[in-house]
Amino acid sequence: MSGRNINAFTTDSAVTPKPQSSFKHSYVEIDSLALIKALKHCKDNYPIPVNGQLLGLDVGDKLEVTNCFPYPQKRDIYNSLSRDKTTTNLSEKELEEKADEEFVKYQDKMTDLLHDIHVDCFAIGWYQTLHFGDVQSKEVIDNLVIYQEAVDKAIMLGFDPMSSTGEISFKAYRASDQLLELYQSNSGDVKNVSSLKGTEIFVEVPIVIKNSILSECFLNQYVLDNPSQNVGVFDILDADHNKQLAHNLDVLSQSLEALAENQEKFIRYQREHTKLTQHHKQMLERRRLENEQGELKGEPMLPMPELDLSALKKVDKPSQLSTIIMSNECANHTRNVSALCFDNIAKMSLLFHRMSAVNKGN
C-alpha cells in the first residue's frame, strides 16, 4: 500500500483512494497548520514512534480537523516518576499504573485548557508515526475499534516518515463497518474472521488540506516577493532509494517469518485437535460396543464420553485475524518494493534518454 503524495501548501487538494466500503464521511478536511504540527512532531522524533490527539468538528459530510496536540511518551512519564522521591517506594507495576493515570490526566488537562481559550476541543481521532506496510497491526486495529466505539466518527491519521525522499506521505483510516460488526458480535473477542478479507479491515478516507484566508494571502505574497524561493524540489528526482528499499525488504522478511511462525502454530493446533478428535471417536466406538454387550447381559447403559479439549490449552490457538493481518502486510511490503523499483526504473530511463539527447547534441 504505497503512500500518496500531498503538497502541504495546496488548498483543497484531495486524495481519493479506491472505494472499499461505505464510510460515514465522504472526506476529511485538515487545517494545514494542524497537519504541519502533527508532521513536525512525527518527523522530529523519528525513528521513535509518537502519537497525538486530533481535534475538530463534525460538519455535514466531512470531518474537520482544526487542531492537534502531541501526547507525552509514557516512558518519559515513567522515568520521571521513578526519579520522584514521593514514588520511590512504589513497585514497577504500581509505577506503570501511575504513569497511565498521569497520561490520562495530561489529555484531560489539555482538553480543558483548549476549551478555556475557546479552541475546538472535541476529540475526533489521533495521529501517529506509522509505516503503511504495518498499518494493519493488531494493536492499531484494537485501538481504532475501541476509539470508534467511544467516538463514532473517529479517524486515525498515519504518517510514514520513510515513504520516500522529498515526499510527504500520510493517510486517514477508519475501521470498516464489517470489522466493527465482527467485534460487536464477538464482544471484542474476534475468533471467526474467515468471512473477512484483508481489504475489509480498514477504510482509507480521502484527505483535503485547507488553508485559512490569511495563510493563502501570506503564501501568495511570499512567492511574489521572493521569486528565488519558488524553485523546484529536485530531491524527488533522486534515484538512490537503497536505504528505503533495504528497509522494505527487511520488514518483508520479518513479516514472512512471522507469517510462517503463525502457520506453524496453526498446523500444530490442527494436529493436536485431530489427535483428540480421533481419540474421542475411538472411545465412543469402544463405549458403544460395551453398551451392546451390556444390553445382551441386561446391564444398565453406560454414558457416552464427552470430548475433552483441555489438552488443547497447552497449545495456543492462532488468531485468524493475525493471519489475515500478516498476509496483508506481506502483500503491502511487496507492493512497496515493486513501486520503489518501478519509480527508480522510470527515473533512470528519464536520465538515460536525457543523456542520450545531450550526447547527440554534442
Automatic annotation (TrEMBL):
GO biological process: formation of cytoplasmic translation initiation complex
Principal localisation: cytoplasm
Keywords noted in UniProt: Cytoplasm, Initiation factor, Protein biosynthesis
Family of the protein in this entry: Belongs to the eIF-3 subunit H family.
Pfam families per record: eIF3h_C, JAB
Residue ranges annotated for the MPN domain, each copy included: 28-179
Functional summary from the UniProt entry: Component of the eukaryotic translation initiation factor 3 (eIF-3) complex, which is involved in protein synthesis of a specialized repertoire of mRNAs and, together with other initiation factors, stimulates binding of mRNA and methionyl-tRNAi to the 40S ribosome. The eIF-3 complex specifically targets and initiates translation of a subset of mRNAs involved in cell proliferation.
Annotated compartments: Cytoplasm
Cellular component aspect of the GO annotation: eukaryotic 43S preinitiation complex; eukaryotic 48S preinitiation complex; eukaryotic translation initiation factor 3 complex
Name of the molecule in the record: Eukaryotic translation initiation factor 3 subunit H
Record GO terms (molecular function): metallopeptidase activity; translation initiation factor activity
Subunit text: Component of the eukaryotic translation initiation factor 3 (eIF-3) complex.
Organism: Babesia gibsoni
